[in-house]
Hints:
The complex is a heterodimer. Chain A is α+β, with helices and mostly antiparallel strands.
Amino acid sequence: MRAATLVRLAGRALGRNKMRSFLTTLGVVIGVAAVIAMTAIGEGAKYRVQQTFEAMGTNLLIVLSGSSATGGMQGGFGSQPTLTWDDLRSIQSELSAVKAAAPVMRTASVIQAEEQNWTTSLVGTTPEYFQIRNWSVSAGQRFSPEDVTSGAKVVLLGQTVVEKLYGSGANPVGRTVRIKMVPYQVIGVLAKKGQSPMGSDYDDTAILPVTTFQSKVQGGLTKFLTGAIFVGAVSPDATGRAQQQIAGLLRDRHRLGPGIDDDFSVRNLSEIASAQAQGTAVLTTLLASIAAVSLLVGGIGIMNIMLVSVTERTREIGIRMAVGGKPRDILTQFVAEALALSAGGGVIGIAVGIGAALFLAHQFHWPTIIRVATVLVSLGFSALVGVVFGLYPARKASRLDPIDALRFE
Amino acid sequence: MAPLISLEDVSKIYRMGEVEVPALQHVTLRIDEGEFVAVMGPSGSGKSTLMNIVGCLDRPTSGTYRLGGAEMGGLSRASLAEVRNRQIGFVFQHFNLLPRTSALENVELPLVYAGLRTRERQERALRALDRVGLADQASRAPNQLSGGQQQRVAIARAVVNEPRLIVADEPTGALDTRTSMEVMQIFQELGAAGVTILLVTHEADIGRCAGRMVSMRDGRILGDRRQAPLRADPARFPLPAVEASA
């Protein structure tokens, strides 16, 4: 039998029982729509997590100095400065998995503008920090390596600080603020970064050159780096390698023999990120498999109706066989009908699923991402459901004895 | 010349659980190309079984059946379907047309399985309908046609693929006398055109229209004789009501 004839035949057979065909298809429609909508939401959630971690900085590692132990009391990491400026330079220049490293010294301080003041987190660092944290400026510019060398009194303000000091939407570039009575020129405003995974506000900060921070805010130059070192690995895959290299280098530099604990710690944030991403991926898979179960139920519905149809049309099958329909022709005809039901349901389901995802995205401001691959896979899967569940009834039809089939009342 | 149909010692035994029911017992029958044969006998005589075997719908339990010299016994279901498609046309007592399908599409059906294109199918189906005088009813569904018309559509379907053999199982069984004669007239025309016809009936009037009469009983052939066929003439059969009043 010709393919075009087959398609027309299937269309006609299903068109005869429109209501029945529609109801049969409904199972697949709901299944596919659920798969599409669920994965769109799941992908959206994953995207949101990724965004959050990207805001934190790509490929980020944080090196903290060791703990102090006084009278049996173990201080936390960073309580004993063990990291030196030379350590920083070595990390920056000697390790293959490290793209950039920056010192991060931090303290809370009041910033005064002409009319308002605001207490914020003051950070002293170098220009590499912006690269590591993937942070650009929305106005003005970043400070340069020369500003660090010269200890220039310049500051970059986060969006929240700008809002508190000057009101939202203001451009304070070129204005002067005072920190601990020292005047600084605002040379730039940082781009909005949002919340950290733990919920704190990245934009509530002000950043100055690390040398300025040391001399004007902290007071006095020291051999030790009283803060953390932020390290950017060359790629997301290289964070593990970078972590090992840093640990090796620091143990070497600090002359820690075997059996002696590290006097520093290296935190790998991409591990947390990937764990989170994995969590959402599991969730997506879970949602999608629940949806796939309903697709399976839809397939069983198709099989049920096809079995009814084969019985109803026994005589038709007999006639077709008598005039020359081969068992294979009968088989293909019924498989084609089942396929038309399920693939038709798949197409409608995709439309409904995309509609539902867009509605949720619009109504609840959930990020939803519809992937072409998901659409194609669910369409393919629904077609497969049709073939698999149509095969048994179709086989039953093709194995009928023409004489019995013709005699069937 | 070798006969078109050749049954040699053919038996067919149906198994109903433990019981074996012989439907055909050692039947030997030869039918030449172009013959119009009526098979007569009461119900249960095995004539339908004979027809099913000759029509390649069924296979004999023992013995050999040759159609056009080719052995049919060992063929697969698919090959038998192909033989039915190319060489045999069927006409049944209850017409067996596809419901809710136009006369034209019903006639097209064998051509669908012959793998013809839509246009050629339609042309040939229309020609076949014209042959039975129903070209103007092509778009009607079976339930919009009278019994006689439905049977003529079925005949058109049987001849559309130009088979060598037409097998008809009680084709007039569901028709009144006048319509029966109309249908027989068409069979006689086909016979005159050289088509071999095997017609199963239990009506003597219908059997008289064939050129050869085979009578059966209990799965055996009792008689086989040639006869001068009675010309089917619907004009001789006025409407039954009129006949009763005469």
